Amino acid sequence: MTEILRAWVGPLVDARVIAAVVAGGGQVVPDISSANAIVWVGHESTTPQDMRRFLTDSIEWVQLDSAGVDDWIDAEIIDSTRMWTSAKSAYADDVAEQAVAFVLAAARQLPASARRTSWGAPEGRRLRGATVTIVGGHGAIGTSVAKLLEPFGVRVVLVGRTPPANCRFDSVPPSQLHDALGSTDYLVICAPLTSQTQGWIGVDALNSLPNDAWVINVGRGAIIDTKALVGALDAGTIGGACLDVTEPEPLDDQHPLWGRDNVLITPHVANPWSQHFEPLAQVVQQNVTKFVSGQDLVGQINCQRGY
Q1: How far apart are CA 80 and CA 26, in angstroms?
Q2: Which of 190, 256, 268, 299 is in Cβ range 3.0-4.6 Å of 141 for a Cys bridge?
Q3: How many CB atoms lie within 10 A of CB 203?
Q4: Is 69 exposed, middle or buried (0-12, 13-18, 19+ CB in 10 A)?
């Protein structure tokens, strides 16, 4: 059965996203009153509350442009009267590249080297043979990180609810995270922020890591207890941290995470906005095609799980 899709794209307009709707078999309409779907393109220029006025009774499906949906769930925008999908698979490869770059930077002590003003720096260590534990390892970002790390000869441990089919990496459920941390050299966090994952990496988790282990976060800042992280860095009970996301965000200029030789911070740019639209358009086209042919959409949001 073929469904008719009339999508309103906005509030920002991008030709690639519009072309994706058409290529998928849908129509782009200029007025929300004639739409039965919304392809939301807002980024940081909008908030979830800005969508309320567009959610008419005729809207059957909303495609968000973000991978994380915690802000949308917290704002109680996402409802059960229509289908909601995120772009969580769109940016996985970009974010995974940042995570692997962080792992390499940590292994080779690049944060300390970048701050040097004279010859000489702490020696790094080879990555081959190390253990990388990925929290959120069964998601799109986590599996992409694991695949990118394979050529480096590391042992990968995925932490998640259900292992992917034919998974070739070691996998443990969240209840066994602390057991896995004892042999972890690099802890990579790429899980969504939910009520279960908020503050998950706190004092107990950090104390479970070896003293030279690095914590890498490309997921959501609030998954790490920031106070506990600063405490571990001060005490020298972890090797360091590489963070693309923080809590709070942005960090105040005087925050104690800044200025450390063993901390590298980037301002939430693992998914660069300048390269945002191409992968988003691919997901939009895929979902429009599925919508018009009556198939299940990718990236469906489950409010009970929080992602």
Answers
A1: 23
A2: 190
A3: 15
A4: buried
pTM metric for this prediction: 0.90
Could you tell me the two tokens for 210? 């070896």
235 and 245, same domain (yes or no):
yes
220, 243 Cβ separation under 8 angstroms: no
**pLDDT at 155 (0 to 100):** 98
Tell me the per-residue pLDDT of 141-171, one tens digit each, with 9 for 90 and over.
999 999 999 999 999 999 998 877 788 899 9
Q: Is residue 206 part of a domain?
A: yes
| Residue (of 292, 139, 132, 294) closest to 214 by Cα position | 132
Q: Check residues 98 and 45 and name the one with the higher pLDDT.
A: 98
Residues 177/135, Cβ–Cβ less than 8 Å: yes
Structure tokens at 30: 């200029």
pLDDT number for residue 307: 79
Tell me the angle at which helices 140-149 and 92-107 cross, rounded to the nearest 10 degrees: 50
Q: How far apart are CA 245 and CA 223, in angstroms?
A: 10
> Looking at the 3D structure of the chain, how many domains does it have?
2
Tokens of residue 173, six digits: 């459920």
Question: In the chain, what is the greatest distance between 2 CA atoms, to the nearest angstrom?
Answer: 69
What is the rounded distance in angstroms from the CA atom of residue 235 to the CA atom of residue 229? Answer: 10
CATH number reported for the structural domain that contains residue 86 in this entry: 3.40.50.720
- Helix spans in 171-299 (H): 177-181, 203-208, 226-235, 277-292
Task: Read off the pLDDT band of 104 (50, 70, 90).
Answer: very high
Q: Which of 164, 173, 169, 98 is nearest to 135 (CA)?
A: 173
